[in-house]
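Narrative of activities, Objective 1.

The group set out to show that a structural description can be obtained from nothing but a protein's sequence at a throughput compatible with the screening campaign. Below is one input-output pair from the validation batch, recorded exactly as produced.
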Amino acid sequence: MHRLSRDDARRLAVRAQLLDAERPGDLVEVIEQLGSIKIDPTALIAPAEQLIPWTRIGWAYEPGHLRKAVETDRTVFAFDGSFHAASLLPAMVSLMRHRTLRATAAQYVEANAAFRRDILARLRSEGPLTAADIPDTSVVQANNESGWYGSNQVPRMLELMAVCGEVAVAGRRGRQRVWDIPDRVWPRDLPEIAPEEAERILAERRLQAYGIVRRTSPWARVGDAGEPAEVEGSAWRWRVDPAALAALDDDPDGRAAILNPYDRMLFDRPRLAELFDFAYVSEQFKPKAERLYGAFAHPILLGDRFVGLLDAQLDKKKENLVVTAVHELLPFDDEERAMVDAEIRELADWLGVGWPRAAE
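Output recorded for this entry:
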C-alpha cells in the first residue's frame, strides 16, 4: 500500500496528463500517453481535439498534425467521438467484435439487415464515403426520443456498425466523418486478443493517463490495474500507476495551462474536488442569468492548482481573441498573473490573432 501526500497525488495526476513543465515533443507522444482526446465541435476558442494537444505541446503543435496522424500515418484513429492511439487498436477491436448491442439497438439492426448489407457493399465498391453519400434504404426507423438524429437512418446505422467494428472512420471532410471498411483503415495483421486480456490492457492504459484515480471511478474504469494507494486526508481507495510513482522524485517546475472543458483532466469531477479542491461545473447549458464564469469557460491550471477560469472567444472576423474575463478562484500574485497572461498570449499567437481584453 502506497501512502501519498495530497501534493504528491496532485503531481501524479498533473504529470500523467502531460501538464507539467516538461512538454511532450509531438502529437503521437501526447495521444500515446493520454490514450485518447475528445472530439467536440464547440469551439469558442478552438475545437477540443486541437486545443488539447496545444495545451500539452505548445507553439510546436499545428492543427494539420492531427489530420496527418489520422489519414496518412495511421498512428491515430477515430472511434466513438474521440481520437485514440493506434497502439490501442488490438484491444479495442477485440471488444468491438465481441460487443453485444442493447436489445433495442440489436432489434433495429436485425430489422434493417438489408440496409446494413447495402452500406457495406457500397463502401467496398465506392468507399471512402460520408453518410451523405450513402442512400437510406432502411425499412425501420430508430427511436429518436432524444432528438439527436434526423430522419435519415444512415448516420445511426453507421455508428452502430462502427461500435461493432464493421466500419471505420477513415478521415474527415470538414466536420463530416468519412467512412470505409476497416481493412482499408486499420492494419490487417492486428494480433488477436481475448476480451478479458483486452479489458486488462485498456484498464492499465487508462490508469497511465490518470496517474492516480479512485478504484471505482466510472470515468476511468481501472479496476485492479496498478497498485493500491492511500492519500493523506482521503478515505477513498485509490489505484496508482507504479511507473508514474517511480518517476515522481524528478520534480520539474510547474507551468500555466489552459484546459478545454472537454479535456480528459476534467472528466472525473469527484477526483478534481477530492484532490484539487476544484468544483468544476460547465455552464454551457445554464441560462445566461445563472452563469458565474461564462458559457464555455476554460479552467486554468497553475502548477498543481486550479487557480482560475478563462472566459474568452475567438472573433474570426476581427482576428482577435476577445478575453471577457480571467476569473481568479485563488488570488493571483504578480508572478502568477504574468504566467497566466503569458499563456493566454501564447494561445492568441497560436491562433494567429491578437489579444485585446474586452475592457480594452
